[in-house]
Write a structure and sequence with these properties.
Blueprint: H1 23-45, E1 52-58, E2 61-66, E3 72-77, E4 80-85, E5 92-98, E6 101-110, E7 113-120, E8 126-133, E9 136-143
Keywords: Membrane, Transmembrane, Transmembrane helix
Protein name: Cytochrome oxidase complex assembly protein 1
Length: about 140
């Protein structure tokens, strides 16, 4: 067809689209707002991480301070004490005296959390308990 004159009620150019050109922009804006609101709600409902704040060497053992109650699993294995905490923290090591003899302890990151290992030249037995104290959680590890 040449030109734009009418021939049998047809035109050489297409009819203008009746839909608004702003419709795709509105849908994209709604999708972006929905994603942002979802991210904000997710951030608000995520629980705070458990973090080891401090380790204190005390008479007969260790006190470990956490910002929230840690989930833990401990065992006395062949004369050593091993406790795994579901928490984050930095690797540390140290020594304490038990009945005038040195006892070594080491805290390291593992795939399940923090692993506390306490070893000595003689077999050890350990007991541990967790309790809230002044808004923080203290895990007491007592050795004998």
């Amino acid at each position: 067809m040449h030109g734009s004159k009418r021939e049998d009620d047809e035109h050489s150019t297409p009819e203008p689209d009746q839909r608004s050109k702003a419709f795709p922009r509105v849908m994209l804006s709604l999708a972006i707002v929905g994603v942002m609101v979802g991210l904000m709600i997710g951030r608000l409902t995520t629980p705070e991480e458990r973090v080891l704040e401090q380790i204190e060497v005390v008479q007969g053992g260790l006190d470990l301070w956490f910002n929230e109650e840690p989930k833990l699993h401990g065992e006395n294995v062949e004369g050593t004490v091993a406790i795994v905490f579901e928490a984050k923290g930095k690797a540390q090591r140290g020594q304490l005296m038990l009945e005038e003899k040195p006892v070594g302890w080491r805290l390291q990151n593992s795939d399940k959390g923090l692993l506390l290992t306490v070893v000595a030249a003689r077999p050890l037995q350990g007991e541990w308990s967790a309790a809230e104290d002044a808004g923080r959680w203290r895990v007491q590890v007592r050795l004998h």
